[in-house]
Backbone:
């Protein structure tokens, strides 16, 4: 009979201001690091599949709702990893769907392993302005819903692990988008000053054969803030 291992995860999350360049921070990022860093693809050493559903402010119309499905696995004697991510986000009258494919390559460094990862995919978004409650129901602008907008997405990350320690740096979105009210459509926003950089680190303490303790921290920052 396999021993049950209790993992106590203390997550310290330090969020900063958000924008369309920012990937929504996941409260379960320790269990699902692929959504923030493509370099983590294949790091578990086995096929890893996760599914998450999150709905905030239950009972409030238009409250944020997120569904995420990820899968990743190692190959080529654990020197490489492949992963995929599908995410559906709903906030108010805006809906976004994201699909991302990830690749990682691992090299030995000292006593640990350093992984480099790249991600590529697409984001589809649209906003139903006509569902808003407005003061002037005859406003022609509000009555027009935005057309579906497709923008390519790219990500980059590094991940270093050594026995019980890990540290990672990533840029989960290298291209963003924003709504141009003058043109009544979404436009690509590639301003590097608005990129968000994520720093993630943690350490696993083996308190006993059946008890492990892993504090972890995730910090997001942007040069433009």
Residues:
């Amino acid at each position: 009979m396999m021993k049950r291992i209790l993992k106590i995860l203390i997550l310290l999350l330090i969020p900063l201001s958000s924008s369309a360049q920012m990937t929504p921070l996941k409260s379960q990022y320790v269990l699902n690091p692929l959504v923030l860093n493509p370099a983590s693809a294949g790091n578990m050493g086995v096929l890893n599949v996760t599914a998450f559903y999150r709905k905030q402010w239950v009972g409030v119309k238009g409250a944020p709702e997120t569904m995420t499905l990820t899968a990743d696995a190692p190959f080529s004697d654990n020197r490489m990893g492949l992963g995929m991510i599908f995410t559906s986000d709903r906030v108010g009258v805006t809906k976004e769907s994201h699909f991302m494919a990830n690749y990682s390559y691992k090299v030995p460094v000292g006593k640990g392993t350093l992984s480099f990862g790249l991600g590529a995919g697409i984001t589809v978004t649209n906003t139903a302005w006509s569902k808003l409650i407005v003061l002037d129901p005859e406003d022609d602008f509000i009555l027009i819903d935005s057309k579906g907008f497709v923008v390519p997405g790219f990500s980059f990350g590094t991940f270093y692990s050594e026995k019980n320690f890990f540290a990672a740096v990533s840029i989960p979105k290298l291209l963003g988008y924003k709504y141009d009210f003058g043109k009544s459509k979404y436009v690509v926003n590639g301003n590097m000053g608005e990129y968000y950089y994520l720093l993630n680190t943690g350490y696993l303490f083996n308190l006993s054969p059946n008890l492990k303790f892993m504090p972890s921290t995730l910090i997001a920052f942007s040069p433009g803030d």
Observations:
- DSSP finds one helix and 13 strands in the chain.
- Helices lie at 140-143.
